[in-house]
Amino acid sequence: MKIRQISYFENFKCLEGKCGETCCMGWLIPLDDDDIARYKAEKSVLLKTRLLLAMSEHSVPVFNSSCGECTFHGKNGLCSLQLARGHEYIPETCRSYPRYYRNYGDFEERYLDLSCLEASRNLVRHADELMITETEGPEDCEKTMTNDDSTFLNTLVSIRASFTDALQKVRTYDELISVLYAIDSYSADLQNAYLHGDESYYDMHPFGVELSGGPDSSGGPVHLNNARHIFPLSAGEVDSLAHTSLYHNRLKKTNPRLYELFQLYFRKYYRDVASENGWKRACRELTEEYPETVKYLRAYYSYYLYQYWLKTYEDYSFLRNARLGIIHTSMLLLMTVMYVKKHRSLSPEEFAHVCTVYNRRAFFSEDLINDMYRVLDQRCEGAFTPTV
Ligand code: SF4
């Protein structure tokens, strides 16, 4: 099968005991049938007792049901199960993490999930040019989609490539605002076209944007108007998002660094960013003081498209799938603004850390994602509220 993967996928190496945001804390660890069979067959009575005591029933059997620290996470920062019995012995979830596989039938895609610190560090390192490599090989997972319309799938891949090509050309904050607006508008147009049965929209109107350097050679239907934009979301919208279950008190235990960033927002710097002008000024000042932020956010949104745009293959929700990425990029920007206000610095490492703690919370609950998307309900297609 054709395998497409982020270029550094094979070189991933866990930071192990040196990880500053270990994945052995803050998660439920689901166990599959093979894991359970292996643990029930454990010969050492002591280890078997620990394993069985560590298991609890959620919707599926899990380790670490309290979402605190996994009971097998040792003081040296390493997994005591892995040390005792080897990598093949630990739960499948832990073995494959942070590798993210999607089998679309015609090809499989592989990424590293940004909830892992080393995956975010890799993103930041490769932010200048994210590359997808293509090889042939055996697939790693079962087909994850039920759709088998290859033409539609190929169209979606082409649309994604045109979006990421445009993002790759972004150099300034204003260009990022423009390109995200263009992607959002184009996705709304696509949605509308498909709703009316026009499946040739992309062929007839390929995506293209004009940046300051002149018209993109691909041409395109999108006319930019910086008086109307979607990124960053308005101050009111990011505040509404901060009041979803994205933030809650248990983060203090499960994701303390994200908890601290939200505390900075609610308790210390809220007044600075509560008004539309204050929020927009804070974003602009950040990108002026730390221009690399534009590159990181551009890469972050591109990576989001790589991981999630092809959900459209299943749900035909062009606009939702483009816009959720803009929601996440706006919230990551808010968290970064908070971080810099407190620490007065933003190294690549620091940005990667903020990215990790945000992604660890924001991407793993469909209910939360639906609530976050609902915040934008008042934005109707083609009727964006002017925010500058
Ligand atoms: S978050 Fe990533 S780098 Fe850190 S311990 Fe987990 S897999 Fe390793």
Q: What is the topological layout?
A:
Elements: E1 2-6, E2 29-30, H1 33-40, H2 45-54, E3 56-57, E4 61-63, H3 80-85, H4 92-96, E5 99-103, E6 107-112, H5 117-125, E7 132-136, H6 150-168, H7 173-195, H8 201-204, E8 210-211, E9 214-215, H9 235-242, H10 251-254, H11 256-268, H12 270-274, H13 276-289, H14 292-308, H15 312-315, H16 318-343, H17 348-362, H18 366-374
Bound molecules: iron/sulfur cluster.
Iron/sulfur cluster binds at residues 14-15, 19, 21-23, 97-98, 116-118.
Helix/strand order: EEHHEEHHEEHEHHHEEHHHHHHHHHH
Shape: globular
Which stretches are low in confidence, meaning pLDDT under 50 for 5 or more residues running?
Answer: 213-227, 381-388
CA distance, first residue to last residue: 48 Å
Helical content class: 40-55%
Structure description:
The chain has 388 residues and is an alpha+beta fold. It folds into two domains: 24-96, no CATH class; 148-388, no CATH class. It contains 18 helices and nine strands. The chain has helices spanning 33-40, 45-54, 80-85, 92-96, 117-125, 150-168, 173-195, 201-204, 235-242, 251-254, 256-268, 270-274, 276-289, 292-308, 312-315, 318-343, 348-362, 366-374, and strands spanning 2-6, 29-30, 56-57, 61-63, 99-103, 107-112, 132-136, 210-211, 214-215. The strands form three sheets. Strands 5-6-1-7 form a four-stranded mixed beta sheet, with no helix packed on it. A hairpin with a 2-residue loop joins strand 8 and strand 9. Helix 5 (117-125) crosses helix 17 (348-362), helix 14 (292-308) packs antiparallel against helix 16 (318-343) and helix 16 (318-343) crosses helix 17. The longest helix has 26 residues, at 318-343. It is globular and about 65 Å long. 36% of the residues are buried. Mean pLDDT is 92; it is low at 213-227 and 381-388. Iron/sulfur cluster (SF4) binds next to helix 5.
